[in-house]
Amino acid sequence: MKNEILSHLGRVAATFEIPANSLKLDYPENPEHGDFSSNLAMAHAKKLGMSPKELAEKIIAEFTKDIPASVESVSIAGPGFINFKIKNKVFAEEIISIVKSGAEYGWSTGESGKKIMVEYTDPNPFKIFHIGHLMANSIGESLSRLIQAEGVEVVRACYQGDVGLHVAKTIWAMRKEKGEERMKEITDASVTEKVKWLGEMYVYGSQFDADKELQKEIQSINKKIFEKSDPEINALYEKGRAWSLEYFDLIYKRLGTKFDKFFFESEVAGRGTKIVKEFLGKGVFSESEGAVVFKGEDHGLHTRVFITSHGLPTYEAKELALNTEKFELYPDLSQSIIVTANEINDYFQVLLKTLSLINPNVAEKTTHISHGILRFTSGKMSSRKGNVISAESLLSDIREMVQEKIINRGFAPEEAEEISDIIAIGAIKYTILRQAIGGDVIFDSAASVSFEGDSGPYLQYSTVRANSVLEKAAQQGIEEIKSKKQDEIILPEQVSLLEKLITRFPDILERSRKEYAPQHVANYLINLAGAFNSYYANNTIADKNEPLAPYRVALTRAFVTTMTNGLWVLGIKVPKKM
RNA sequence: GCGCCCGUGGUGAAAUGGAUAUCACAACAGUCUUCGGAACUGUUUUUGCAGGUUCGAGUCCUGCCGGGCGCACCA
Predict the structure, then answer these.
(1) Cα separations in angstroms, A515 against A28, A200, A440
(2) Which tens digit of pLDDT belongs to each residue from A249-272?
(3) What are the residues whose beta carbons fall under 8 Å from the beta carbon of A565, sequence distance 6 or more?
(4) What would the pLDDT profile of A62-120 be if each residue is shown by its tens digit?
(5) How far is CA A479 from CA A233, A240, A535, A570, in A?
(6) Is A369 helix (H, G, I), strand (E, B) or coil?
(7) Is the N or the C terminus of chain A less surrounded, counting Cβ atoms within 10 Å?
(8) Which residues in chain A, range 80-99, keep a C-beta under 7 Å from any nucleic strand B atom?
(9) Would the Cβ of A158 be found within 7 angstroms of any atom in strand B?
């Protein structure tokens, strides 16, 4: 219906010499203003030498000469808005067709054939998988799904720092914390324990930055790791790396991410060094105090080191190779998106600048999206201020709270486990995705436990309840509308906000995708759930004596489909019961 | 010091240059022996300051105030 109005309005606009491609329809916030509104009269009045109202009246006169079938009325309001009201019947029919089209509702094929890579999460072996990684994962996964919803093939990539100073520090500490005995113990422990120990070793090895002698030692270990020249170090390295990767796999599975491609720093380090050296000769880089640097000041940026005075490549150099390789491995990528924390924004600008000088094609297709950090206001997480909080500890804290909440619901222990995991992850992901990417997220554990209103569990609950209503309807033998012919279905005279919101879903997805903004979906789902709960409170759905029951059941079905698909975009599952 | 980002009810957030700034929490007042109350219906309280651009500014521009991040061998 939106497109129908838009194209008709386009023809009308053309008679006033207004280009049709500048037109758009908005959803008015106040429902009294109709179902769609256009600001074109206000935007073009001046050029045409008319007042906005005058132009609006002329447009409406022209528009109503041959009014589209779905439009009930067109009116002028406020400073010159043109408001369109759609016939109730059109919304009701749309609901029926959503139910008939089934589970794909909202998905588009508009961009099919394209391929886009999204790199996100990027944890480092030997270091803790912390809540920052959790945040990057939630955001990257949601962006990936938004892109998939437009028919694009997504290559999910994860880039893991398996070499570099942090590894050297950890290995130095592993040898100090001597070893053999401890290694033996830890080898028999669970992978979670192993990784925890690695994390502790990293922290231990990181506290001596001021000690020049020790730093030399660590640098030499760093060099040996790169060269693979010391068997003892190699053995420790291989073990630690394998433990970390095994652990990360567990977390990805739990969070619902399946990566298609893992990149490792160790694989791109050599190539990165080569690239920098090559372009040092070509004047992109210069030498300074024994290091190879890029003088960013010439481009309004700052100077960064690409190869250290020890001859080792920094993150910057490795990234040059990484981004080049992405397009070699997947030559048909139309875009490469990288999700990272915003603390490296300035750094990334330097990187993209150098990339544009080295490989403009790749640079042009590379998009950097950054997010803020998770902060805690209250509850027990705040007492750990100053320490890095692991994703696992946050997850298990929230899960515990959920479990307390559902303890009296009579679930079998295994069932309770599964349900509380789904809810806990839903609560966390929703908190991250409900606001614009880029800003810090204030995680209020108390609020997330209350599970009211603006929360993931509220969305899950609304869906579960609607599902349960559908079950009840089936028991009563209320016929599912799918099999019915169009003219056998009794439609309501009036439709509610629920119908109107459901039909907006594809539009919301499109906007979210365009703006890389999952929060539009999150916000929309909250409104949608509210509309359903309100409808539910005012209408009996599963009542076999009610002539409208088949329609109401269909509406509930459409709600569940929209909700489930919307939550999927956020990476949130819907439990069967909760 | 320089650069980038951000200041929206008591709290946490939303808003494509559009209409009376939206939502949730909190507070207060109600509904209801329900199709699963983790619900529904109300009330109260907001765009840091000063200019500017625009028919129209939370949104764009300038200055100020306040906060975060980054500025050479970590990632």
Answers:
(1) 20, 40, 18
(2) 999 999 999 999 999 999 999 999
(3) A103, A105, A106, A107, A505
(4) 999 999 999 999 999 888 999 999 999 999 999 999 998 878 899 998 888 999 999 99
(5) 69, 59, 20, 32
(6) strand
(7) N
(8) 80-81, 83
(9) no
Length, in residues, of chain A: 578
DSSP character at residue A302: -
Q: What are the tokens at A285?
A: 């880089």
Rounded Cα distance between A290 and A311, Å, is: 9
- Residue A103 structure tokens: 């589970």
User: Could you say which DSSP state residue A118 is in?
Assistant: E
β-pair partners for A36: A84
> How many beta carbons lie within 10 A of that of residue A549, not counting itself?
20
Please answer whether residues A303 and A293 qualify as being in contact, where contact means their C-beta atoms are separated by less than 8 angstroms. yes
Residues 436-455 of A with CB under 7 A from strand B: 436, 438-442, 444, 447, 450-455
**Tokens standing for residue A565:** 């698909």
Among the listed residues A351, A315, A307, A326, the one whose alpha carbon sits nearest the alpha carbon of residue A263: A326
Please identify which residue in the block is written with the tokens 């599963």. Answer: A542
CB atoms inside a 10 Å sphere around CB A537: 7
Spatial CA neighbour of A355 closest among A366, A343, A344: A366
pTM score, whole prediction: 0.94
First and final C-alpha spacing in chain A: 37
Q: Any atom of strand B under 7 A from CB of A377?
A: yes
Helical residues (DSSP H) of A330-385, grouped into ranges: 345-358, 360-365
Q: Phi, psi at residue A300, to the nearest 5°?
A: 75, 15
Whether the complex's predicted ipTM is more than 0.85 is answered with yes
Residue A358: how many other CB atoms lie within 10 Å: 19
- Reading the block at residue A446, the tokens are 């108390």
Residue A568, CA distances (Å) to A65, A141, A337 in order: 43, 10, 20
So what's the pLDDT on residue A179?
65
The b/e string for A204-215 (b: 16+ C-beta within 10 A; e otherwise) is bbbebeeeeebe
Distance in Å from B69's C1' to A344's CA comes to 8
pLDDT tens digit sequence for A192-240: 999 999 988 888 888 887 788 888 899 899 989 988 899 999 999 999 9
Which residues fall within 8 angstroms of residue A228, CB to CB, at 6 or more apart? A234
Strand order in the sheet with A36-38: A36-38, A81-86, A71-77
Strand order in the sheet with A335-341: A261-264, A153-160, A115-119, A335-341, A366-371
Cβ–Cβ under 8 Å, residues A334 and A341: no
